[in-house]
Structure formats: C-alpha cells, structure tokens
Amino acid sequence: MRLLRTAVLLLLLMQVVLRAEGQPEAIQQAEEALRARDYARAQTLLAPVTGAEGASDYALFLLGNAHYYAKQYPQSAQVYDRLLKDFADSPWRKKALFKKADALAQQKQFGQAADLLQPEVEHLVSDARKEEVAASYLKYAEGYFRPADKDKQPDYEKARSLFEKALELGLTPEKTAQTKLSVARCWYEAGEFGNAAQGLQALLKEHPDAKVLPDAKYYLGRAYLRSGNMRQARNTLRDFQEDYPQSTLLPDVLFALSQTYHVPAPQDDRELDLGVKALREFVQRYGKHQQAIVADYQLGVSYFNRGRYEEAVAELSGFVKRWGKSGKDELPQAANLVGVALAAQKRYPQAIDTWNEFLVKFTNHRLWNQVQRQILDTEYLIGDEAYRAKKYADALKAWDAFRAKYPLDVRNPDIMFMRGMIQHDQKKYPEAIAEWAKLTSKYPETEPAARAWLLTGDAYETKTFEFEKAIEAYGKVGEGQWQAEAQQRLAALKQKKLVLYTERTLTTADEPKLKVVTRNVEALELRGYRVDMVDYFNRLHTLAGVEKLDLALIEPDQKWTLKVPEYAQYKEVETEAPLPFKEPGVYAVTCQADKLEATTVVMVT
Fold first, then answer.
1. CA nearest 559: which of 510, 602, 525?
2. What does pTM read for this prediction?
3. Is 336 a member of any domain?
4. What's 308's domain CATH number?
C-alpha cells in the first residue's frame, strides 16, 4: 500500500513538472483545437513551442496542419519544409512530405508537387520496396519454417502460405528463386514429395541462372528419392555430381545416391551390390562426414537384410571395431546384429558370447533387455535344434542346462513335455508316460500339461492297451486347445463301433472275406444276399447303390455269426470275416451288432 501511494505521488509530481515546462500542455491543447477545427487558436498555442529553438517535429507537423486546414497553403508548405530539413529521421517525415505536396497542389504548383513526390513514387514501385514489404512475410515464414524456440515444432503449411504471399508481391528474380525454393522445401518437409518435385522442376526451368540452382537440384533428387522414384532420383543426383563437382552438398548427394538402391534393405542382389558399392565410395571419400557412420553401418545391415549373414558378420564386426569409441547409437545396434547373424548361421555359442559382451558394454542401451531375451531364446533353441536332428542326448543336455540356469522361465514346462517326446519318439512309451507324469505334477494347469495328458491317454490306448488308464488320462485334459480332442477320444473309447468294407473285387480263386472294424462289440450277425444285377439294372437303370437297398424284409441267402477275436472292452479290433459263398456274382452283405448295422457289396468274378 505504501508503495502504491509513493507511485501516485511521483506521477502527480511529474505532471506538475511537465506542465511547468509548458510544451506538453500546449501541444495537447493544440490537438484539441485542431479537432474542434479552431485552426487560429491552434496556431496561437503552437507558436511558442515552434520557435527557432527547441521546436519538436510533432509540434511543427501540427502547426503545418493548422495552416493547411485554414487554407493557408504557402505558410503550411513552409512549416512542412522546415520539418523535412530539420528532422530527416522523424517518423512524421513521410506524412509531412505528402502534406507539403498537397499544399503545393492546392496552389496549382503541380510540377513542384510531382518533383517532390517522384522519389517516393519510385521507391514505392521499386524492387527494393517490394522486397521491403515482402520482408515481413518472409520473416514470419522463416519463423514458422525454422522456429527459434527449439521446443516448438515447425509449421510448414503456415510457412508455405507466407512464402507464397511474398511471391505475389513481386520480388527480384534472385529473391523469387530463393522464395520458390523455400516453398518447395515446405512441401518436402511436410512429406508432400510430389508437390515438392513439381515446384523444383518449375524453378529449374524458369530460373536457369539462379544462385539457388544447386540446392534446388539437390532437393529435387531427394524428393524423387523420398517418393520412391529411384530412377529419376539417380539421374538427378548424378547430374548434380557432373554439374557441381565442387559443391559442399556433394557428400550428401553421394549418400542419397546410395539410398536409391533401397539400402539398407535392397530388394535383390543387384541392388545390394550397387548400393554397397555406393556406400563404400561415400565412406572412403567422406570418412569424417556426419553420415559416414550411418553409411558404414548400412553396409553390414544391407548384407544382413539380404540374408548374406557371413558377409554381414564380417562388415558389422569391422564396423564395431572402427567406431568403437564413437558413442553413436549405431554401435550397439551393430553389435546386436552380429549376434543375430551368427545365430541365423546356427553358430549359437558364438552368438551367445557376442550378446553377453553386449550386455557388459551397453548396460544402459534400450536393446539390453531384448538381447538378454535373445540369449535365453538361443540357449533354448540349441536343445530344440538337437531334438529336430534326433540328437536326443544333446537335446537333453542343452535343455537340462537351461532349466538349471533359468528355473523360473516359462518354457520349462515345454522342456519337460519334450523330455517325454524324446522317449515317445524312441517308442519307449512307459518312459514317456513317466516323464509326462512329472510335468503334470509340477505344472498341472499349463498347456504342455494338458497336451501331456492327451498323449499319455493315446499311449495307454494305442500302445500299451491299458484302456482304463487311457480313459482316466483323457478325462484329466483341462480347458484349452487339447480338450476337444481328448473328449472325442474319450467318447470313441466308450461307444460301440462297427465298420464293414470290401478291399477289392474277388475272384473264384480267392477266399472271399470282408474287413470289419469294431469296438465294444463281442459278436456279429451277418446276412448274405445274391443280387441279380440284370434285373437290378432294368429296374433302376444304374449299377450303383446296391449297398443302400432295404434288405431287412428280404430273406437272406446265407446267415452266420462271427465272434470278434481278441475282443476287449474299449479296444478297437480290425478282423476278417470269411464269406460262405464262392460262386461268381454280386452279393450284398449286412453286418449287425445290437443297434449298429453296416452293409457292403462283394463282387466275385
């Protein structure tokens, strides 16, 4: 509060001092008189403050206006002339100049008025004036294109709009070329490479002698490159090399040329060879360029992406040695890819050693966790590769080492499952069942455990024929992808099954018999019917469909019973059923067991 009172007192004191001097108050009163159109009073008030000494430019301007609006044109011209001579840098100078010209015109001194304004008119229509007006557009455009605040993102659309407004004003040829280049660069930086290329083509055609021509051709090549027009990009960049051999942009042009071969992901071996050649040339000629490390890195990555892993290992290993002290991000990336390329060649121990070295050297790199996972994956893969090669001892050794080293890894249930598969593949079914029992006990709720129960059931059902145990195992398959199959197998074990078929046409030299597949069926009732095929064809006009005849109401030619050999509950049995007829002909045979019935046709020739 005390500070506020002090400020108010100071302000009042300043007003008293100013009024004591007289000038500010006189000018203020003169302004009021002019607004009231009391020009005589304004002249009287301004007379003391526009004397020979101490006159201000603004006071003279007001006095000239007082004479002018009072239609005292000669006096007003004299006052304006005094302001122009005594205050060459005054902000009121231009207004005074135009008002003096008006005063001369009112006196019909048009020639003098024209001579007075001629320099100003020439300036207004001059290229310098146009660029002066356009400078404000260009200043703000540059601010949007390249913000001074590093935290602020460029706004290329606004920048382009202001550059185009500057062009509309009409600039000098060289400034026009520069501004058109800026417009094209706005398109380029905004990702509108087609528009950028179109603008740069026009610039090269319309301004063939502009100083910005090298920059325009360089960005045209880059626009073609970024839009995927590799052929045009190469042609344009090669033209640049020939036209501007001493340009400071030459390193960037050579690097861009290498990119026209899609490095570091060349599409074929031809692109790989040409791209690698261009990258090597760049590194050799411009080893200290900021892009040299990128080009050297892309050499190895190009080989890697084409599956040329041996060359990739050589190039990337050399890169790591050459740039080991650079601290650049490409270094750890290259070190990781060396391990990946080694693993792709199945050189697993070397890959693991490479990645372990990575973990020591690059402890804070973003790839650290990924590399650690790759080590685990590869150690697991060693066992998997050995298993696929049927090197079971090596597989068990690798997987047992993995489990001991990583007891909490989620793949340990899979390893226990594969231990059972190794025994299963060797037809050691009890040993396989025993291994799977360890898995289902330790990891009962896992997917490998569910699959283990399914295969345990299959081994009991189809290998050791312990059907009660098979039923128990199928019943323990929990929810998941294996449950549906287990339920189907379980239902099939419990259901009765009857399948009857003839393998081939028989001859009188063969012992006539059928194939019968059964489950949970102890005995079969069979009936045989001789079919008159001539009569059958005359009635139905086809020889097909004999097995679909309704034979239940027809007295069979033969009846007989067959006991299923090796019958056991739940066991599927395939057996042969002898037939009681040998004469040539066509026979329909029906087989029945409880509610199950099957029919087939036997042909004897």
1. 525
2. 0.68
3. yes
4. 1.25.40.10
